[in-house]
Amino acid sequence: MRRKLVAGNWKMNGTSADLAQIEALAEAHTGALSEIMIAPPATLLHRAYEHTKSGPITLGAQDCHKCASGAHTGDISADMLLDAGTSYVILGHSERRADHDEHNEDVRAKARAALSAGLRVIICMGEELEEREADNTLDIIGGQLAGSVPDDITGETLVIAYEPIWAIGTGKVPSIEQISEVHDSIRKRLEHRFGPQIARSIRLLYGGSVKPANAAEIFAIQNVDGALVGGASLMAADFSPIIKALDAS
Ligand code: PEP
User: pTM here?
Assistant: First the structure.
């Protein structure tokens, strides 16, 4: 069975004072049933590792370069992330796709680099509001899935996050039916491409304005195996009830 996963994406937030939030979560969730991942900014990874190495939290990064090393000023390789104590890397987040002009082929190349270094990847995909309104969501997601996910994945190494762009940081959340439809369609496409056994073991996260108040309802949806959480992952007091809701689902 798939182990549930709740992943916190701190984005460009957090300095050393915020390590206390990670410490508080680690203490509060020692017996968590779900896997808990936090992706602080790269500057905090080494120190965050000191608070997480004895569990239950695993560390993630928010991006990596597609090359293993070299002349890429300001960039960070997958090997460097692994060396800092990271187990996961989030790739293809809509903010990276928009701010850094990342396309599916870039995300796929980064995923290959991360997998070769021994990291697990959380590959994000999601539609714009206009694409949803034009009834193109499933095609858009299908294209992102085909283009961003490399062939050499396993159920262990790949996690998919469905994150409608219009729901990120806006407080707007798709209906239960809309989330369910997209997650079912992702599972079917994964089955078609990788076969039923691998497809059944890949975790599918929902992301976009997940909060303590809506988490339980979202986690009750079949084919939702957890969440990728932005704003509500910054403070332990907000993230903790979401972790508890996933444990209880
Ligand atoms: C995200 O950026 O991945 C995200 C889901 O953000 P938020 O939870 O703040 O909508």
Answer: 0.97
Domain 5-248: what homologous superfamily? Aldolase class I (3.20.20.70)
Contact 137, 127 (CB under 8 A): yes
| Cα–Cα distance, 90 to 146 (Å, whole number) | 17
In whole angstroms, what is the distance from residue 18 CA to residue 198 CA? Answer: 37
Q: Which of 35, 93, 95, 102 is catalytic?
A: 93
Encode pLDDT of 194-227 as tens digits. 999 999 999 999 999 999 999 999 999 999 999 9
Marked catalytic residue, from 35, 127, 163, 183? 163
Could you identify the atom of ligand 1 that is nearest to the CA of residue 168? 10
Tokens of 32: 């968590």
156 is catalytic: no
Which atom of ligand 1 is found nearest the CA of 210?
Answer: 8
Active site residue 127: no
- Reduced to 3 states, what is the DSSP secondary structure of residue 228? strand
Q: Count H helices and E strands in the chain, helices first.
A: 11, 8
- How does pLDDT run across 40-72, given as a tens digit for each residue? 999 999 999 999 998 899 999 999 999 999 999
Domain ranges (residues) in the chain: 5-248
